[in-house]
Amino acid sequence: MANTETALKDAMTSIEGVIGVALVDYTSGMALGTLGGGKELDLNVAAAGNTDVVRAKVRTMELLGLKDEIEDILITLGTQYHLIRLLRGRGKNGLFLYLALDKSRANLAMARHQLRAIEADLEV
Which domain of life does this protein belong to (predicted)? Predict the structure, then answer.
């Protein structure tokens, strides 16, 4: 089992094209851990903003009466992919992994696959 720091490092090193990664509590909008980002991307601002995205989607699903769970949310920009993966399991509810990828270097299918593996190994 990996702790937050190990999981974030794993994402940065094992996923091609990563710009930054964060573990976020979407009840508060606070990043519990971040790695990468920098001048290109303020991960604390991204954590707060993507919390609004997750809350809006959860609220919309409730209004629609959908009895399903969100696996991930993909936002495609001109030069980047932003992937939000909601975590499941003991102690993980209310959390998501946020991954920003350079579109020209990333393989989206592999990134999603590797992020699932990181989630499975993460101990919060």
Answer: Bacteria
Domain count, the chain: 1
Phi then psi dihedrals of residue 53, to 5 deg: -60, -50
What amino acid occupies position 67?
A: K
Instruction: Tell me the HSE value of 48 on the side-chain side, using a 13 A CA sphere.
Output: 4
% the chain with pLDDT above 70: 97
Mean pLDDT of the chain: 93
Helices (H) then strands (E): counts for the chain: 3, 5
Q: Return all residues near 48 (Cβ < 8 A) that are at least 6 apart.
A: 29, 30
Instruction: Find the domain containing 73 and state its range.
Output: 4-121
Residue whose C-alpha is closest to residue 34's, from 12, 56, 52: 12
Contact 87, 108 (CB under 8 A): no
Q: What's the mean pLDDT in 14-37? A: 95
Copy the structure tokens of residue 18: 């990563």
